[in-house]
């Protein structure tokens, strides 16, 4: 029997500091029993350049002398990860593994892009990575969802079509990140998967919806309260409210377990499953606001989204939420199939009529394998891959440098950028670089206000004061987003 292996898992640096990588927390917790030691280097959680990231990786490799180094890749960190792997291979002779959400797109091409990589793990990796840790090098022929090199061949084991449930999984553990306190809302999931097929959505989210036993969810929350001193939490899953009765049970059990923390659902809830009873339960259990995935309120655009619900469902849900005196958020997409500058601005006008308290607006990225991608291939032009396209406000704070993923003759990229900036500024979603100095942020915000919405200066001044007070309060009460154990980095 082989001796136990030590594993270093890495979340590469991102464009801007991001939230904790829950995938690596799940993975680390579930390979602990079959390894000598596991450590996670969460470089996406700190302000970290590629050069600094390479230095930290080398430092940890020298200290740990791991047998396996694994990289978790998202679309925005793929190229960074490949550069780090090239550097790593100069001094590391062990096994290099790539996993994470982006593998579903890059797939076999990863082996061409990164000849230094030994293994690619597709899909959910808790079980497959545990098997890899226990196998002799190269003996991976029966592990589903693994791509590996064998002699001069590349072996591709298909993903098991039956996705596993939560039975036997240990809950995520961020102690492997070197973290001792978490000041941001703690990320937690009560389910995986989504049974719907919206035209724009990442197909990696699709498939069977699998609920997690609520007892395990509450056990994880209590662990996080006692271990990381969390003060709030955030649900991170594609569809939290698929079953109204389960949402009500979740809220009731939160109170029974005396978990009195403010919380929110990061992804937009399904409007067609929102009821008065669900909203009241969420409000009573400490939910701070309800966010709905709306995308578009323009009928001729909405009918092509394939959400499986109606605009009337959305209007009804918002009325229920507002009657319960809860803040309501909405998420929207600019550039959906058949969209134009005129319909995008009409979408913004209709959103204002609904009385939404806060709205998020992103640029469409047509994920490969979606109906939006197929439509765009036929009717438009795709300029950027998922690795380089900009979608959200902080991807690019410079209007001249926005990488629009795609456009059509009816909605050219110049007009998409114009609509994106104009709508976000009018909504109070100011676009600036999070890593910029405060005075540069303030300057870019004021510049945008005068450019896009100068006649509502009082509204923006009041909003800016509110944002500054919130930021000052957060900084005084919480300090850094995470506190690390000594020598964690």
Feature tags:
about 15% strand; about 500 residues; alpha/beta; TIM Barrel; globular; 2 domains
Structure commentary:
The protein has 489 residues and is an alpha/beta fold. It has 2 domains: 5-164, 3-Layer(aba) Sandwich (Rossmann fold), CATH 3.40.50.280; 183-477, TIM Barrel (Alpha-Beta Barrel). Helices cover 37% and strands 16% of the residues. It contains 16 helices and 19 strands. The strands form 6 sheets. Strands 2-1-3-4-5-6-7 form a 7-stranded mixed beta sheet, sandwiched between helices. A 3-stranded parallel beta sheet has the order 9-12-13, covered by helices on one side. A 3-stranded parallel beta sheet has the order 14-15-16. β3, α3 and β4 form a beta-alpha-beta unit. α8 packs parallel to α9. It starts with a strand and ends in a 5-residue tail after the last strand. The relative contact order is 0.09. The mean pLDDT is 90.
């Amino acid at each position: 029997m082989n001796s136990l292996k030590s594993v270093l898992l890495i979340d590469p640096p991102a464009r801007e500091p991001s939230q904790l990588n829950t995938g690596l927390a799940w993975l680390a917790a579930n390979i602990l029993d079959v390894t000598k030691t596991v450590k996670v280097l969460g470089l996406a959680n700190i302000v970290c350049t590629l050069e600094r990231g390479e230095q930290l990786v080398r430092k940890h490799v020298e200290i740990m002398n791991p047998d396996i180094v694994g990289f978790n890749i998202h679309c925005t960190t793929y190229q960074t990860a490949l550069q780090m792997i090239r550097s790593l291979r100069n001094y590391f002779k062990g096994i290099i593994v790539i996993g994470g959400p982006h593998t579903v797109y890059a797939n076999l091409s990863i082996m061409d892009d990164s000849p230094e990589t030994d293994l690619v793990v597709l899909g959910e990796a808790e079980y497959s990575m545990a098997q890899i840790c226990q196998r002799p090098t190269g003996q991976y022929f029966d592990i589903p969802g693994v791509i590996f090199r064998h002699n001069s061949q590349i072996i591709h084991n298909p993903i098991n079509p039956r996705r596993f449930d939560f039975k036997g999984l240990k809950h995520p553990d961020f102690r492997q990140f070197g973290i001792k306190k978490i000041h941001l809302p703690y990320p937690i999931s009560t389910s995986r998967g989504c049974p719907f097929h919206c035209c724009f959505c990442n197909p990696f989210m699709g498939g069977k919806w699998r609920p997690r036993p609520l007892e395990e969810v509450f056990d994880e929350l209590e662990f996080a309260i006692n271990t990381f001193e969390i003060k709030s939490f955030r649900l991170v899953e594609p569809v939290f409210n698929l079953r109204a009765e389960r949402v009500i049970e979740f809220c009731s059990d939160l109170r029974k377990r005396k978990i009195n923390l403010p919380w929110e659902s990061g992804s937009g809830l399904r409007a067609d499953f929102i009821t008065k009873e669900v909203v009241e339960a969420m409000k009573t259990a400490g939910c701070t606001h309800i966010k709905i995935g709306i995308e578009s309120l323009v009928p001729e655009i909405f009918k092509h989204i394939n959400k499986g619900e109606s605009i009337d469902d959305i209007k009804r849900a918002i009325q229920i939420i507002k009657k319960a005196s809860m803040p309501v958020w909405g998420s929207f997409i600019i550039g959906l199939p058949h969209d134009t500058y005129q319909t995008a601005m009409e979408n913004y006008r209709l959103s204002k009529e609904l009385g939404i308290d806060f709205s998020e607006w992103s640029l469409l990225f047509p994920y490969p394998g979606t109906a939006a991608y197929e439509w765009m291939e036929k009717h438009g032009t795709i300029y950027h891959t998922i690795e380089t396209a900009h979608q959200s406000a902080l991807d690019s704070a410079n209007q001249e440098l926005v990488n629009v993923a795609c456009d059509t003759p009816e909605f050219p990229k110049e007009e998409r950028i114009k609509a994106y900036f104009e709508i976000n500024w009018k909504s109070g979603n100011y676009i600036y670089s999070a890593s910029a100095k405060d005075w540069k942020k303030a300057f870019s915000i004021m510049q945008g206000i005068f450019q896009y919405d100068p006649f509502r200066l009082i509204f923006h001044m009041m909003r800016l004061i509110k944002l500054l007070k919130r930021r000052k309060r957060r900084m005084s009460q919480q300090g850094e987003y995470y506190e690390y154990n000594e020598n964690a980095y």
